[in-house]
Amino acid sequence: MTSITRLDIPEVVLITPPRFQDSRGYFSETYKKAALDAAGLDFTFVQDNESLSTTPGTIRGLHYQAPPFAQAKLVRVVSGSIFDVAVDIRKGSPTYGKWVGATLTAEGGEQLLIPHGFAHAFCTLTPDVRVLYKVDGAYSKASEGGIIWDDPDVAITWPVKEAVVSEKDAILPRLKDLDSPFVYS
Ligand SMILES: Cc1cn([C@H]2C[C@H](O)[C@@H](COP(=O)(O)OP(=O)(O)O[C@H]3O[C@H](C)C(=O)[C@H](O)[C@H]3O)O2)c(=O)[nH]c1=O
């Protein structure tokens, strides 16, 4: 049975599909639309992404795409482990600016479902981390936005003090300087 747990911001959901172990290893249905639909998680994913981060302490994000190119994401790890984070950036939300996170591991097969209206980032905890994630909207570079990973107002408790980030991510704005394109409803 797939384990489905809503986090403290309940729109963000931790999903752990079962693994069927035998003497060869294991088998797992890593994505099953019917299982998510049965839990009221109605998403139609249109693109699969993969990233490799070689150095522990790499942080990718905090990123989002603005509507009409907003992306929900279903994130999992196939090698290593990450601390995965979602920040609520829906104007008017009771949890605006708040974050939730979960540790996702290749060993455990945990997945995080992040809906529209959230900025997403992860920090790698091991070398050579491969992250796979489904998105329900195609890539739109022109629609990309973000928040700096160590925004003191968001105050994410990252497992690292110094991070490896891209040049693009190093100059992302603070939440207080962002006019979020998302509205809570
Ligand atoms: C996201 C994306 C990127 N690209 C190209 C654009 C660049 O030439 C190259 C690296 O892109 P970027 O530096 O934005 O990759 P990440 O820093 O891993 O960005 C991702 O990191 C955080 C965790 C996210 O949640 C988003 O999915 C995404 O923003 O891949 C594509 O061709 N298609 C895509 O969907």
Descriptive account of the structure:
With 185 residues, the protein is mostly beta strands. It has helices spanning 33-38, 167-170, and strands at 3-6, 13-16, 20-22, 25-27, 47-53, 59-65, 73-79, 81-88, 90-91, 99-105, 111-114, 118-124, 129-135, 144-146, 182-183. The strands form four sheets. A six-stranded antiparallel beta sheet has the order 1-2-11-7-13-5, with no helix packed on it. A five-stranded antiparallel beta sheet has the order 10-8-12-6-14, with no helix packed on it. A two-stranded antiparallel sheet has the order 3-4. A hairpin with a 6-residue loop joins strand 1 and strand 2 (13-16). The two termini are 31 Å apart. The mean pLDDT is 97. DTDP-4-keto-6-deoxyglucose is lined by residues 49, 51, 60-61, 63, 73, 120-122, 139, 166, 168.
Q: List low-pLDDT spans.
A: none
Rg value: 16 Å
Question: Could you report the average pLDDT, rounded to the nearest whole number?
Answer: 97
Could you give the count of β-strands?
A: 15
As a percent range, the share of helical residues equals under 10%
- Global geometry: globular
Structural class: mainly beta
Main pleated sheet: 6 strands, antiparallel
Ends: how far apart? 31 Å
Bound molecules: dTDP-4-keto-6-deoxyglucose
Strand content: 35-45%
Keyphrases for this structure?
mainly beta; 5% helix; binds dTDP-4-keto-6-deoxyglucose; 2 helices; 6-stranded antiparallel beta sheet; single chain; 185 residues; 5-stranded antiparallel beta sheet
